[in-house]
Amino acid sequence: MQYNFNITLDHRKFGEMFIVCGHLYAIDSCTETNSHIRYVVDLYNGKLLNVDLPFSNPFRKTTTVGYNPLTVVSIH
Questions:
Q1: Residue 44: which residues within 8 A CB-CB, separation 6 or more?
Q2: CA gap 63, 39 in Å, rounded
Q3: Which DSSP string corresponds to the chain?
Q4: pLDDT higher for 19 or 1?
Q5: With a threshold of 0.70, does the pTM exceed it?
Q6: At 18, is the secondary structure helix, strand, or coil?
Q7: CA nearest 6: which of 34, 43, 36?
């Protein structure tokens, strides 16, 4: 284990969470087709980042979120 993080977070407020490049992202809902990522924590610096990223979920009722760095996403 390289890092251990202790973050107080009400997990009932979010649909799913994932970590990419040292940032914890929390998706508002995994049951809605269109949702947002509003909660991002920089795990290296322990700072909450103010974001409002759209999250499209064509499948609805998602139980697991994965990250693929090879996928290019264009947000307009």
A1: 22
A2: 19
A3: ----------GGG-SEEEEETTEEEEES-SSSSEEEEEEEEETTTTEEEEEEEEEE-SS-S-------TT------
A4: 19
A5: yes
A6: strand
A7: 43
